[in-house]
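Give me the fold.
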Amino acid sequence: MNTRRIVSMLSVLAVLNSMAPAQEMTSNKQPNALENVGIEQRLNEQLPLDLTFKNSEGQEVKLGDYFHDRPVVLSLVYYECPMLCTMILNGLLKCVNVLEFDVGDEFEIVTVSFDPTETPEMAAKKKASYLAQYDREGAEAGWHFLTGSEENIKQLTRSAGFSYKYDAENDQYIHASGIMVATPDGKLSRYAYGIEYSPRDLKLSLMEASEERIGSPVDAVLFYCFHYDPTTGKYGLVIMNVVRLIGTATVLLLAVFIITSIVRDRRAKKQVRTT
């Protein structure tokens, strides 16, 4: 097995490590190559929106330029990654392709390379590839691919709880995988681990990050029934909320039945009097 494949496999192990519950992470000893590699949730952490990067057209932009009135999905990758980063972006693409919310309309995606040697040309090539596969109106202005200096990259990854390691011998990075959802004002709201992302979970995360300004009333009911579990980065069904919801629905149906019965009885009595 060649060394490049070994490094790629270590990155996969880092994914599994980042997906493990907190108690398992403390009890299981990690391989040396995975030390200081992973994703630590920094919920409610303010992202440094004043940091500058370069967009896919080579223009200098601020991170805060992409935080306005919509939630933001943040993905940290590097464009020449031989395996894992492509899987992350493919998983994100697969998820948003079936999501009813549109990139550039209900939310933004900001993809940042954590390799300071990568260029806007690389970002432009990657952007063109994924926009062609997404193919929804407005996505051009909603999915952003950035590059930046080592100092600014480190500030961003540190605030997001994303730790990685450069393997000089193989010229690759060892890193975990996942995406983050941030509020419109740049506070980290939710994390999703791995390379496959649940459309339902992402939808709930975006709704929550937007303070339910996006989504339908039916979505709000779904949001009520699910609860975010930070140890897994997923939403689980909350039984008590479901019971309460069923109870409320039952009471409402009973009230409608009683009112309907009363109205029917009154009409029947009125008809009897008139005859």
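The chain has a mean pLDDT of 80.
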